[in-house]
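Lecture notes, structural biology module. Today: joint structure prediction for complexes of two components.
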Amino acid sequence: MTTALAKLRSLPIISLWRGDPWAVLTLVTALIVLTPILTICAYLLAPASENWDHLAETVLPLYVSNSLVLMLGVTIGAGTIGTATAWLTSMYRFPGRRFLTWALLLPLAMPAYIIAYTYTGILDVSGPVQEWIRQTFDLSYGEYWFPEVRSLSGAIIMFSLVLYPYVYMLARASFLSQSVCVLEVSRTLGCTSWMCFSKVAMPLARPAIVAGLSLALMETLADFGTVQYFGISTFTTGIFRTWFGLYDATAASQLSAILMMFVFVLIVIEQWSRRRSRYHHTTDRYKRIPEGKLSATGEKFALLVCALPLLLGFVIPVFQLGIWSVETFEAMVDSSFFRLAINSFTLAASAAVVALLFALILGYGNRISSSPIVFGATRLAGMGYAIPGTVIAVGILIPFGAIDNWINRWLGAYGVSPGLFFSGTIFILIFAYTVRFLAISQQSVEAGLGKVKPSMDDAARSMGESRMQVLRRVHLPVMKGSLLTALVIVFVDVLKELPATLILRPFDFNTLAVRAYELASDERLADSSTAALAIVLVGIVPVILLSTAISNSRAGSRKQ
Amino acid sequence: MTSHLTVSDVSIDLGESEIVQDISFSLQTGEIGCLLGPSGCGKTTLLRSIAGFEQPRKGTIELQQQVISSSETMVPPEARQVGMVFQDLALFPHLTVAQNVAFGIKQQPKELQAKRVADLLDLVSLSTASGKYPHELSGGQQQRVALIRAMAPKPRLLLLDEPFSGQDSDLREQLAREVRGILLEDNITALLVTHDQMEAFAFSDSIGVINHGVLQQWDSAFNLYHRPANEFVADFIGSGEFVCGTVSASDSVSTPFGELNGEMTASISQGVKVKLLVRPDEVRYDNNSVTVAKVVGKSFRGADHLYQLETRDGSGLLCLTPSHNNFDIGDAFGFRLELDRLVVFPDSDRAHSISSTAE
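The predicted structure, tokenised, for the full assembly:
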């Protein structure tokens, strides 16, 4: 007996627990969060199903080429818009610049699938634009050429319009943080203003731009709503079809695994660029960049370049959604719409709370334990932000389905058949959101914890407070703002999330996003507008938070 | 008289390595002590162990005859009534100055709290800042808030961990003197940790010099400078150079610069080779002297010049002389040595340097 106990004690996990319970708790939490991703990775090694060969021969090349074309297009589109607007707003003075500086972030509030529905409505045969062309030029349908929105190039434009803010945000931060000294030195060495941009500022900002682009490309790969609606076959639609059409979990997981490899490449590029951009800060001395003056034509040009993405990516679609909402208000806004809203809000709020709790466990674990394993695990746990919702959904359904089956078999032996415990419940839906959005909570929690210096803990204790009291009187009040930010951002992201919700939601359970998707798929674009508009409007809140956070954290600005 | 704080034979390990080794010292009530040493010498670890954040592996720490730390007992920091001022001050950013100061006296009735806070703010002339937040204050003001916050609960002992290190060097000594005045007024027993000797001299009654976790000497500032217990202290406190010599009598040492007489700080038998400490103010410029060195470096410091000299036998000396004695590098420089006291250490270094070249 004693030897058995001693043996148990010598198990690594037990001895680690005795020495460092926080480390164990952190590792277990990280492992739970990583389950879906590990599941998908495991399927890379599984033998291929019979459908696989068929898939590989027929649709897989299409998925790969479509995804690559989309990525290339978004790189050019979002890259150009993001860099150009960032450069103009950081380096030059022109009318409306102050407003545009933050307003250029607004398209972040617009999910790609919603902008896609809206532009389809605007540019369709029966839409206002084509109607105007027919009336003005007295033509009928078929007698004139008009670009098709629901196409690969249409999708590229939609993605570029809503994803450029990632590039804009990071590129602008980089331009602003470039010490003015570097730029002034290059001027004294004889560079013209254009040479400054191309020879100094651009190379210095390149890592930031690449990091922004990788984020935009991750979103592109994760998108389901847009490509599904435009009828473009990509991995996400393929996974969906294999899962619900062929009921082939293995093939769906293997498709997910290939998609995840694309994502891993992006993660590596992103992390690498971020690290490089940190080294590119050559000095700690900052001074506000003196903005250059432009000629009257130059000012107009700069205004146009910066206003256009905002108009196309936010103002016009919101305006159109607003018109449709007013038209369909009576028909659509009834008790079922409010039930939908309440469903969405409760779900989003619960997921935000759960993600925050997980992030707190990981954050404190990392703070208390000095183990590099714990540090690595907390970093890995935040990987879900890059993994498409479709992949996470598949990675969750497989293990939880197995657990459900096991419970049923076990209880079945006693003559009880309880049905499904996890699959098709709110529980796994919230879990999926936690996996996907944990990184956001983690970032905020870490920012908050960073404000509580270890010496503050010690100071409070030397003044007679116990550990628990220190949490209540120091940690909570200092971190309050950051925790609230975490809740708000995850809340909104959950509200916008479509593919995981679509796959994991309980039968007959609808959210605003799913409803908008269903109505749009039924070609009831105007009817879908109220739900879509609600999502966009709520989405503005984190954009405002983000823009204030950026202006507060700018290098060289007064910090407390 | 019994002592207020007694540290006896304390050794502290952090992870695998021993940070503090067998340190003992004590402070009387109202005495202000200081632990002085280069960074990483273990002084902060010792301070944190007195505060209750690190447990000693061996030895005891007693406060007013109560054991607060030993390998068996460990009174948690919150139950020690030991105040601490931290290097980064650790002011709570979410609380105003007054709320920061009142943090440790929350259990007292409101009127008493308000009175104590007002008194302390008055003591450090910060009454007008009571409603401000820490980031709205200057560095020196934050410093004073951190100090009175630690003083507010009337701790039995006040610990200060390099509290002036964030300040401008001109300001440090002045702040140290100010804080000393405040502590004396309240008859507070305090222990400061610093690596800056000027700060230590300005602040404390007695100073312990620590190197590699070992207490080298516990003494007054005067004695540390004039009667260093070993070569490390001689080298660490003030500046100066060692001159080789041989003990010729109980009060004299023969050196390349002649026979020097004076009270010897250690009793060393005749004929033993020694190193003699020569401070820059003991080297006097003398135009008539037959002993001549070459100027190899100089720094103008306003009232005086500090010359780096190289003597004929190749050893170095420092000389502090009024700045009107102006020489150029390479000039010949006549001097004589004027020592009241002969600070000598047995010269083990020569054997040392031979063995190290043999390696």
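Point to remember: Chain A touches chain B at residues 451, 453, 455-456, 458-466, 473-474, 477-478, 560 (CB under 8 Å).
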